[in-house]
């Protein structure tokens, strides 16, 4: 037996296990049991009389005005010689499974058991960032001569600039930004604007070099702040950056805000076909991804021309994993010798290299769309193409790019093609089930956020 007032609480204990509320019914039951039978399980203490296991029993005994309590002394532990992390590790090890604990105590117990060094090591391995802190690099800095020539686009080119600004305003109102310079080019062709107020100015598109003038105008306008940098996109030059997470509190807040928000139900589970979308051009990919592929959850690939063996392999593997009997490919490409040949080539690649017999359909650009929507041609067929003669026999000597189609027209035409090979009612039912799941997850997210926020206030 030991004098209760010769024993010391270990301060770190209350960073793991919540100090009991004296009015808590569970704590009052413990006090009643001690008054009736005393402390039946001895307190475990260190050689210097710090409690290792039994802090709640110690508080209950003091609350019951007891003078002493049975104790087991671990002579191998001198608490005053241990640092904080060592004390926490000892407390969690000796108190695990002692009693039924609350969820918050189990969380704190688990959090306290984290080895800081191991946590840092795992985080660094996960991030896989190698910082090169060499003091010297031995490289020669690039020298410059002269300056960049930028001209005011609102002067002699004001008519052309205003037409471009009108185009961007219309696209912004319909959520079609960012766009590409090529898309703006085709819209200008239909607006009959002059390239310059000078005598050598001409109606845009009536002479070679119009596209180069537009490129220069867009650069000058962005440099002058007249066009937002985010309005134009260059999908052919990808980049990647690493964004810092901010403070630990901000990171936790942001993570909790996104918790359970990326659940995707398999909305194609009941579909008869596995459907894929293939797009010839990077410039068109963002538009079709946002407004067609994502809303209907159809895989989409930007091919940048004929594509590649890995791209075909990925399509074939997704189809095989789907367990569907049929692969249907919806293809969007230019109406030119290569654009017409690409879908047929892909069908042959899938069959020959992966044993997949796919049904492939061109959704755009088609001769019917050229006629129906009065699409402006891009240029004459390149006679150097080995496929030029066959194309000219079928479609004439002009070509049409995907970029020539108005955004909403392209979205509507491709969407309709995709819907024709989907069971739309089954898709809608699947989205309804996903919505139900999202509501359940939102409720769970609210509960988890409340719990973690409370714990962070106590531990951070």
Report on this structure.
This protein is α/β, with parallel strands linked by helices and about 450 residues long. The protein is about 50% helix and about 10% strand. Strands 7-6-8-9 form a four-stranded parallel sheet, with helices on both faces. The longest helix is centred in the last third of the chain and has 36 residues, at about 425-460. Residues about 130-135 have low confidence and may be disordered.
Top-tier CATH class of the largest domain: Alpha Beta
Succession of helices and strands = EHHEEHEEHHHHHHHEHEHEHEHEHEHH
Known CATH architecture of the largest domain: 3-Layer(aba) Sandwich
Q: Which structural class fits the helix and strand makeup?
A: alpha/beta
Summarize the structure.
The protein has helices at 13-16, 25-37, 55-63, 84-95, 103-112, 116-127, 158-173, 181-189, 210-223, 248-258, 285-296, 309-322, 337-354, 367-373, 388-395, 407-420, 424-459, and strands at 2-3, 43-46, 51-53, 68-69, 71-74, 273-279, 300-302, 326-332, 358-364, 379-380, 398-399. It has 460 residues and is of the alpha/beta class.
Which features would summarize this protein structure in a list?
9% strand, 11 strands, elongated, 17 helices, Conserved hypothetical protein from pyrococcus furiosus pfu- 392566-001, ParB domain, 460 residues
């Amino acid at each position: 037996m030991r004098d209760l007032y010769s024993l010391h609480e270990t301060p770190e204990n209350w960073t793991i296990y919540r100090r009991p509320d004296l009015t808590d019914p569970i704590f009052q039951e413990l006090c009643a049991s001690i008054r009736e039978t005393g402390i039946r399980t001895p307190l475990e203490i260190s050689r210097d009389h710090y409690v290792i296991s039994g802090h709640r029993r110690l508080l209950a005994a003091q609350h019951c005005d007891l003078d002493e309590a049975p104790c087991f002394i671990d002579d191998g532990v001198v608490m005053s010689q241990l640092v904080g992390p060592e004390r926490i590790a000892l407390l969690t090890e000796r108190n695990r499974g002692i009693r039924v604990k609350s969820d918050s105590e189990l969380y704190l117990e688990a959090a306290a058991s984290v080895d800081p060094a191991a946590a840092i090591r795992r985080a660094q391995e996960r991030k896989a960032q190698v910082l090169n802190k060499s003091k010297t690099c031995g490289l020669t800095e690039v020298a410059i001569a002269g300056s960049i020539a930028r001209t005011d686009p609102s002067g002699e080119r004001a008519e052309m600039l205003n037409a471009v600004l009108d185009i961007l305003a219309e696209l912004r109102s319909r959520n079609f930004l960012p766009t590409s310079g090529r898309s703006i080019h085709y819209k200008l062709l239909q607006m009959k604007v002059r390239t310059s107020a000078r005598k050598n100015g001409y109606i845009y598109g009536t002479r070679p070099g119009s596209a180069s003038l537009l490129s220069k105008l867009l650069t000058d306008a962005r440099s002058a702040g007249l066009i937002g940098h985010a309005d134009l996109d260059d999908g052919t030059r990808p980049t990647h950056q690493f964004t810092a997470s901010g403070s630990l509190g901000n990171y936790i807040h942001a993570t909790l805000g996104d918790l359970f928000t990326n659940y995707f139900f398999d909305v194609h589970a009941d579909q008869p076909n596995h459907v894929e979308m293939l797009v010839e051009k990077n410039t068109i990919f963002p538009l079709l991804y946002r407004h067609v592929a994502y809303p209907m959850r159809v895989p989409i690939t930007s091919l940048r021309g004929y594509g590649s063996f890995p791209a075909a392999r990925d399509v074939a593997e997704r189809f095989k994993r789907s367990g569907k009997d049929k692969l249907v490919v919806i293809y969007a490409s230019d109406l030119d010798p290569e654009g017409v040949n690409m879908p047929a080539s892909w069908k042959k690649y899938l069959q020959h290299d992966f044993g997949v017999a796919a049904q492939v359909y061109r959704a755009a650009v088609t001769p019917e769309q050229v006629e129906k929507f009065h699409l402006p041609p891009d240029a004459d067929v390149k006679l150097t193409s080995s496929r030029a003669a066959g194309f000219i026999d079928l479609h004439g000597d002009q070509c049409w790019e995907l970029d020539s189609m108005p955004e909403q027209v392209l979205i509507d035409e491709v969407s309709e093609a995709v819907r024709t090979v989907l069971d739309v009612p089954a898709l809608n039912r699947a989205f309804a089930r996903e919505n139900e799941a999202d509501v359940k997850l939102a409720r769970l997210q609210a509960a988890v956020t409340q719990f973690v926020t409370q714990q962070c206030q106590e531990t951070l």
